[in-house]
Amino acid sequence: MDTLASVLWDLKRAGGAQAAMVSSGDGLVLETAGDPPVDPETLAAYAASGLMVGERLGDSGAFGPPEAVVIVYGARSVVLAPVGPAVAVLVGSAAQAGALRLALLRHMDALARAVREEFGTRPAPQPAPGEDLPAPSSQAGVRPAPDAA
Fold first, then answer.
1. Is the pLDDT of residue 88 over 70?
2. In degrees rounded to 5, what are phi and psi of residue 120?
């Protein structure tokens, strides 16, 4: 069993990325490998929003869900991809955009497995004696549903 951290380090090396990250769908840092060029919390929040924009574009254009969203800046590129309820993020040079996307897609099964193992199998909270738990949230998993704007 690979941990999420080890999968991210493998992904970072395979793509030659500066940083690899997995965030929750609402922009919380779950795991980071490497040194992102911006604050990890900021990157996670914008990555979740950026992927949501890609999902909405796919919905409105009847393209379906994105397999990856590639953003190229002057000197950097950022590749985002949905991993179940989470968002995978790779950051590298602008010239690496294609290699980063390919590395991410090649590691998708391992990433999905690691995310499920680390975040999808948590036991349900148990109430203290004499205490009731609040009703379950309507949002399943970590990522908000695309239509929950």
1. yes
2. -100, -5
Element (DSSP H or E) covering residue 15:
helix 4-15
Q: What is the mean predicted confidence (pLDDT) over 14-23?
A: 95
pTM above 0.85, yes or no: no
Nearest to 83 by CA among 45, 125, 116: 116
Chain centroid, CA 16 distance in Å: 18
Q: How far apart are CA 148 and CA 46, in angstroms?
A: 17
Say what the pLDDT of residue 142 is. 43
Retrieve residue 3's tokens. 């941990």
Amino acid code (one letter) for 42: T
The beta strand positions in 38-115, using DSSP E, are 69-72, 76-83, 86-93
